[in-house]
Specification:
- It is a single chain.
- With 71 residues, the protein is mainly α.
- It is globular and about 30 Å long.
- The chain contains four helices and no strands.
- 54% of the residues lie in helices and 0% in strands.
- The mean pLDDT is 86.
- The protein starts with 13 loop residues before the first helix and ends with a helix.
């Protein structure tokens, strides 16, 4: 699958969306919970990575090198 495919089209359902959100928060060691609507607000892997980089990890320079390292 391409990073631009919608997660829901790849079989992600609402329970899996909650589990994904919780797993990401746990693995990143976040104190605050991620939004309950994370998988719906960020419907692709690319959008999810952009949100995490920009809004959670505060990475401002989202150049190609950063993207290739993350995705």
């Amino acid at each position: 699958p391409d990073r631009r495919h919608r997660l829901m089209d790849l079989g992600l359902d609402s329970l899996m969306a909650v589990q994904l959100r919780d797993r990401i928060a746990k693995d990143l060691g976040l104190v605050r919970p991620l939004p309950a609507t994370l998988a719906f607000d960020c419907p692709t892997c690319e959008a999810l990575a952009a949100f995490l980089l920009r809004d959670i990890l505060k990475v401002r320079n989202q150049n190609r090198i950063v993207w290739e390292a993350i995705i």
